Amino acid sequence: MNPVDPKSLRKSRLYLLLIGLVFAAPMIVAGLLTVGGWQPGAKGSGQPITPQRNFVAEQLRVPMVDGGNWAWRDSEPRMTLVALAGPDCAARCLAALTSMAKARVMLNRNQSRLRLLYLGTPPGDAAARQAMTSYWSIGTDVDGKLAGFRSKAPDSVSALLVESNGTALSFYPAGFDAAGLLRDLRKVIK
Predict the structure, then answer these.
(1) Where would I find the H helices in the chain?
(2) What is the CATH topology of the domain spanning 47-188?
(3) pLDDT in tens, 48-73
(4) Whole-number Å distance between alpha carbons of 81 and 46
(5) Whether the model pTM is above 0.85
(6) Which of 52, 53, 165, 185 has the fewest CB atoms within 10 Å distance of its CB?
(7) Separation of CA 159 from chain center
């Protein structure tokens, strides 16, 4: 039997301990960060809606201009982006609505998975209203259940992103970043 060199044994054990530490260090750091309150994650541009609301359960009725009521739960899984214009919707409001429609178009092959719903009186003259109907469905919040989300500032628009089952996911207050909205849409519409 060969005698084991104690110095070599200590060196081997130290290497084994260092290898274990290399694999355990990320888990230890993650645990410390979690205990410290820091949580990594993909933060969206919109504000989360708390308490969570489901428009199907609330029976939120939205009569459409062309007749019928808006179906929050669609025949196929599609998200809904709801635009809520403030008073006197004009040039800035129309620009925000256009940027929302552009965000839908930029979803490319997934653009059919997003519906655009405008609640209120469409801005602009008859030609602008007619052009708007090519992208937007137009309806009215007759019971005022979404009044808390509607922009109060003149010539502005806020938005809600609603899941295909009628659950409101995110709120985008007036002056939101259209690029941030597009990033959020790309995350949830795949």
Answers:
(1) 6-35, 91-105, 126-132, 178-188
(2) Glutaredoxin (3.40.30)
(3) 888 889 999 999 999 998 889 999 98
(4) 12
(5) no
(6) 52
(7) 10
